[in-house]
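User: Could you walk me through two proteins back to back? I'd like the raw sequence and the structure tokens for each, with a short line separating them so I can tell where one ends and the next begins.

Assistant: Of course. Protein one, sequence then structure:
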Amino acid sequence: MRVTRHLSVSIVTTALALSLAACGSSGAAQNVGAKNTAKGGGSSSSAEHTDDISVGVKPDAKAVKLLPATVKARGTISVAMDLTSPPTTFMASDNKTPIGFNPDMARLIAAKLGLKLQFNNIKFDTIITGLEAGRYDFTASTMGATKDRLKVLDMVDYFKAGTGVSVPYGNPQSLRTHTLCGHRVGVQSGSTAELQWLPQLSRQDCTSKGKAAIEAVSLPSVNDALTQLVSKRIDAVMYDFTGLRWAATQQPKTFDVLKPLVATKTVTVALKKDSPLTPAVQAAIQSIIDSPKYADALGRWGFQDLGIKTAAMAVPQD
């Protein structure tokens, strides 16, 4: 019995690694121009949306006018992403092409600014320090605005997202969003699930009522968390709802996503605090929102109901 159980866990975790994790090294920088596309077969490429959504998009004159002269002269803009989080931010099966809603938006931002795009694939919890150090120009990584982040970052709204909880298929422990007290819950290191929503839920539902706190288990990626969930080392995973729904779709009868969601939020494109690029990037995002390409980008990844109308400077959502 023990051998059979370990074999089944191994098979499922291998499938997760193939369908959920980024295929490339998370620390490697990847120089991918705004017009780079995969060379895979037609049906596979179409299913993965490896085609470049920014092809044919013309620069927005108002946004270009706001570009710093130094950026305009170099002709490139760099984005930092952790390419391990489908369907928002991940790597295609060719192991070369960043895909998902966030890479689509990054390509559109670069196109609206008339610049070439450089992708940098790095760990999520190192993105902010990289922006502060000037190693990257911006990030589009489904990052929520918090008071602490807004102290060091400029943050511009670009779509809505939510935080949810996944449990093993069939929910054998009969868990609910508000009954996680005393349970081990996996979160991505540096995410708002780890920094904000899980502690808040633990206070409201557990410790304030004399119950055991929710135990946060910080892990590098959602794939690591879901793998631990399958192997029963944790009881649940708290993460962006879009990613959890994607995982449940890709691995039928493996996960259930609990309702209601923990929280809904507007998420942001982020730059270094007081970056001279911020006005141009904000104008580029608004130009995208006002164009048909925004609905196209949302629709490609099943986010039709998550769009916004204004690329506003973010306010804290603590």
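----
Protein two, same layout:
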Amino acid sequence: MLVHSRRGRWGAWALFLVLFAPLFALPLLVIVTASFSTHWSGAFPSGPTTEHYAAAVRGESLRALTTSLVTAVTASALALLIGTWAALSAAALRKRGRRVMDALFVLPVAVPSVVVGLAVLVAFSQPPVLLNGTRWIVVLAHTVLVTAFAYQSVSAAVVRLDPVYEQAAASLGARPWYVLWRVRLPLLLPSLNAAAGLCFALSMGELSATMMLYPPDWTPLPVLIFTATDRGSLFTGSALAVVLMAATLVVLLAVSRVRTRATYR
């Protein structure tokens, strides 16, 4: 830690706990507690049950979770591909060109996500590219929203790359594509995995743009959570939220292990 005295460290930890508990830990604890309850009319919940989780892992809820996972994985893969290509291309541009690329890729996160959803809806509701009413318009909107984070993460890593490795490979006769595949991308692998995890987490929780675009046969889990709570089923919605958090954390832990092994190598 940056604080070297014992009293200062204890103070820093106390401040962290004071801020963390009410802002982060307590709301999550309330959601988890509500997911195991049937009533909450007083200071504490009552009627402990696991029926909400039994319903959350079957039927419509299970389909919604699968929809969210497929959407997030597809959008993250596309965002990582596009963001990496754009970051590598921007690194070869002059300063003004890089600024233009940065502005273009940051634009989707500079405006509310509902605006992005409306833009996608208007753009792809008419031929020749008609995606409205299909699952692909949801995947496209998620890709647009998370590509900026992939681009920024990879761009920051590209700037820190030591050009000595590429120059050494080129001096030994390696072609540009070989240098890219065997030198640059392996060096960028930790940042690529971090960007993939961030894109996945953001896509799993996306709601605003999704509400404007999703067809009846492609309902992600956040939409189902919103629908449940809007009907007054707060305990069912809490269980669905816990399932969403758990699924996201499992994937992020898997991605972090990949990143750790890549860093070690």
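The chain has a mean pLDDT of 86.

Let me know if you want the two compared in more detail.
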